[in-house]
Amino acid sequence: MSKALITGAAGFLGSQLAARLRAEGQTVVAIDNMSSGTEQRLRPFAGDEGFTFVAYDAADAGLLALPELVGVTDIYHLASPASPRFYQALPFETIEVNTTGTRTLLELARRTGAKLVYTSTSEAYGDPLEHPQNEEYRGNVTTWGPRACYDEAKRLGEVYCYEYGQRFGVAVKVARLFNTYSAALRNDDGRVISNFVGQALAGDDLTVYGDGSQTRSFCYVDDTVRGLRLMMENPAANGQIINIGNPVEHTILELAHTVIRLSGSTSGIRFMPLPQDDPKVRRPDIAKAQSLLGWKPDIALEEGLMRTIEVYRGRREGGGP
């Protein structure tokens, strides 16, 4: 039976992955330093003997000595602030967990023979000059700006993965994720879908940065989790970087109008200056995921938005966070 370690398990994606693994009957050890994770996301696992939570920083090399990690077979390294709101507030922590932390987890995998999936990001492509982006594209990036602490740390994390795979034969796989979302996002997360849905349900104007012509590709969390599971289990993914995202592209202005329509809101739209280094386009080429894993997303944007809106509405009506 597999024993999985999830770093960042109190975060949006980590908690959803933990629920999936427990539903499959896997033992889960969850690690989080709670810098951007929440206790609320861990509540569904209370009393679950197959789930162990350890409050710990994944960047701390002492992790290698934790007794809870004996027998780990699968490592999902998700720990990192992912929203600009959080990683720009915690730049040094973001750099540390994606570099030193990634090396620590790779060292654990080397010592134990465990497989490792590292969640990188579409931000590795920067403000791309090639569109859509496939895994061979090296990106249009900068080390000098407010997003660099996240983008460049993720890229260096990928380098560590390459070296451990090449030098030590670690079964490591890198997932470049594209704008994962669901109702499990914190209301105050700061990412565009949580912002728009929260504003629409409150009757506030939706905040669009720039003219809204910039594009993104949104992947519902169930599809992302399924992609991560396939990467972990399929040996064909070893030593590979694979885009996990929805190849259907939407402008931010289109997304705003869609959220207003689906939520039945009377909100308007307020335009604000575009943040520095905000990418103009973002769309994954998923041919590699399809050929190696047989993966493609199943949940269309409107379906995912409706699920998200209904849960957010229920929280508001119930007085929840």
Automatic annotation (TrEMBL):
Coiled-coil zones: none
Keywords from the named record: Decarboxylase, Lyase, NAD
Ranges of residues in domain NAD-dependent epimerase/dehydratase: 4-245
Keyword Lyase listed: yes
Classification via Pfam families: Epimerase (PF01370)
Record's keyword annotation contains NAD: yes
Cofactors, names only: NAD(+)
InterPro entries: Epimerase_deHydtase (IPR001509), NAD(P)-bd_dom_sf (IPR036291), UXS-like (IPR044516)
Superkingdom to which the source organism belongs: Bacteria
PANTHER family: UDP-GLUCURONIC ACID DECARBOXYLASE 1, UDP-GLUCURONIC ACID DECARBOXYLASE-RELATED
Official protein name in the record: NAD-dependent epimerase/dehydratase family protein
Organism: Paenibacillus hodogayensis
